[in-house]
Each structure stands twice: as C-alpha cells, then as structure tokens.
Amino acid sequence: MDKINSETLDRAQRRTETERLLSNIKSLPLIPKMMFEVTKFLQSPAPTTSGLARLVGRDQGLTAKILSVANSPLYGLQRKVTSLEFAIIVLGYKEISDIVSALSLAESIKSTSDKYFNHDEFWLHSMVVGSAAKGIAQNLGHMDLGSDAFVAGMLHELGIQLMHKYMHRQFEDICRKVWQQEESFSGAELDTLGMTHQELGKFLAERWNLPVVLCDTLSHHHSPGELNPRSVLAAVVHLADYMTQKLKIANVYWDENMQLDPSIVDTLQLSSQENLEKFILEYKDLFIETVFTIRM
Ligand SMILES: [Fe+2]
Ligand SMILES: [Fe+2]
C-alpha cells in the first residue's frame, strides 16, 4: 500500500476511535446553572435591570469578566461601563445574556494549566477573539449579528478545551509533535485523533444545543470559505482569530501559521486583499489596549 493510502486509512481508524471515545465521555459539562437561571429570569413576566444585576452579581468572577469585555476597546462601546447594572442598561438584556452564556460555557469546561496549556493565555485569546469579532462585525455594518460574534469568538477554540480536558494524553502527543517541529498542529491532530479541534468544538456545541450558525462557525473557523452558503459570522471570527497571529497579540501556538481564507474578502465585502491588510493593521492599537484591559 502506498504511503498516502495507508495514512488515509490510519486517520480513518483514529477517527473511529475518537468518535467512540467521545460517545463514552460520561461527564461532559451540562448547560451552566447561571446561564439557565438568566434565561429563566428573562422569560419571567417582568424582568428588571436590578433583578438581573442581582442574579448575575452573585458571581463576582463572572461580573468582573463581563465588565472587562464590555470595556475592552475592541468590543466597541462608546462609553465606559463601571457597574453591572449600567452594563445591562447599555447593552440590553439579550446581549448581557449572550455574554453570560459564552463566559459560563467556556468556564464550565475549563481545566488547569500545564506544560502545553496555559489557561490564562487561552482565556485571553478567547476574550480577545470574541471582542474583536464583535467590534469588527459592528464596524463592517453587520449590526444584525448582535452579540453572536462575541459568543462565537469566545467559544471558537472549544475543541481545544475539550481535547485538553477529556483526551489529555492525545493532546500532549499532538503538542509534543508540534513542539518538536515534526508536524503542523492540524496535521498532528489528524494523525492522532483523525479529526481536528474544529470538529470537536462543533461536537460539544451540538451537545449543548447551540444554534446551527454557531456550530458551523466553530467547525469552520479556519476555513469559512468551505461553508455553503457563506457565513458572515464564520468570516468575522476567522478574521479576528487570524489577526491575533498576524499582529502577534493574544496569539496561541495552535493557531500558528494559520492561513487567511481569501473567501472572506468577498463575504465581508472588503473590496481587495490589500484593503484587508490595511484594515488589519489599523486594529493593532485596539488589540494592544484590549489585552491590557482584559489582563487588569
Ligand atoms: Fe482554532
Ligand atoms: Fe484561535
């Protein structure tokens, strides 16, 4: 058998093993309690700003994160938000509820740092991509995306979290291969698991019953052009993620050498590749300031 055929066969076998492993995980996180309670509260007959602030405010860590997102220069709010109550007034119930969902879903699958995974860097990368996706969508006139861009950006690497937490040995194998420069991250993923973190992210997002457009964004955040029809949400998240590499700010090693999918020039109506390069550079200071705001 030639090398390519045996490689394809190996990967197919690995994939079957990974699928079996995924279906046997008994302890996948459920919908977080806070997300559930906020949704229920907002469906009550007369939700109030102070009531919502009281509910969310019970979790101080979450409150601090909401404020740092809302105040991050990339997110694009015109005013500084100093309290949860004021954040609810400025952003509205739906957007606050979306931010709570994204942050608590990411938190529900968090794991501790180790040699190949730095939790703080991971969190920073996710927050920056989420905030940038939201700000860029708004800047390009896609107001209809609302806070979905933040949610999708915040959760785009869900598959990495899943892999790190539930397939730890395989995660370490993949990272070792990448660190020893044997392979690219996606090549090592395919050789070890027969699938990529994009697919793993989609798997978990589907388990959580997240909207299809979000699941598709997770599975195509490296290749939005493969989606038919094209998705503005996936294009924006891809661009925000690519920018962390290009600008070398809040970048992570599993995204290294990430190629820009040229289809987004069209999807986001950026007129030309040169325009896109210019657009990216204009964001540099906002990325730097956002990292500073989130790290505070
Ligand atoms: Fe990724
Ligand atoms: Fe990323």
Helix content: 55-70%
CA-based gyration radius: 19 Å
- Structural class, from helix and strand content? mainly alpha
Proportion of strand residues: under 5%
Which oligomeric state applies? single chain
Helices and strands, in order, run as HHHHHHHHHHHHHHHHH
Number of strands: 0
Distance between the termini: 56 Å
Fourth CATH level, the homologous superfamily of the largest domain:
Hypothetical protein af1432
Instruction: Estimate the mean pLDDT confidence.
Output: 94
Number of domains as seen in the coordinates: 2
Q: Assign the CATH class of the largest domain.
A: Mainly Alpha
CATH topology grouping of the largest domain: Hypothetical protein af1432
| CATH architecture assignment of the largest domain | Orthogonal Bundle
What hetero molecules are bound to the protein chains?
A: fe (ii) ion
pLDDT < 50 stretches: none
Total helix count? 17
Secondary structure layout:
Elements: H1 3-24, H2 33-43, H3 49-57, H4 60-70, H5 84-91, H6 93-108, H7 119-139, H8 148-155, H9 158-166, H10 168-179, H11 185-193, H12 197-207, H13 212-219, H14 232-246, H15 263-267, H16 273-282, H17 284-295
Helix pairs in contact: 1-11, 2-6, 3-5, 5-6, 6-8, 7-8, 7-14, 7-17, 8-14, 9-10, 9-12, 10-11, 12-13, 13-14
The protein binds fe (ii) ion (2 copies).
One fe (ii) ion is lined by residues 157, 197, 221-222, 255.
